[in-house]
């Protein structure tokens, strides 16, 4: 199998460098998907053998290591909530002509199919 400039056995320096960066990248990707925090800490120490763009991203991870650890350990995300807020803002921009707040609320609930504690009451 050929990589840019050489084979995988290290016959060319450019090909070998690309292969090392690819291996390092896939290793970090594996550590993040497996949430292996201790191994990630050990791998971040050896970032000086990577290419410049990869070192830049890994040094950013080192600077914010506490937050990366929390994201890997707890797996909580505010992504779904941000998506709901964005959808509500889009409805607010597009449907500024609602005469009643209840109609606006119903439109949001119908499009997002949000389950509420209380039944939807139309007055």
UniProtKB/TrEMBL annotation:
Sequence ranges assigned to domain Transposase IS204/IS1001/IS1096/IS1165 DDE in this UniProt record: 51-108
A Pfam family recorded for this sequence: DDE_Tnp_ISL3
Name of the molecule in the record: Transposase IS204/IS1001/IS1096/IS1165 DDE domain-containing protein
Organism: Furfurilactobacillus milii
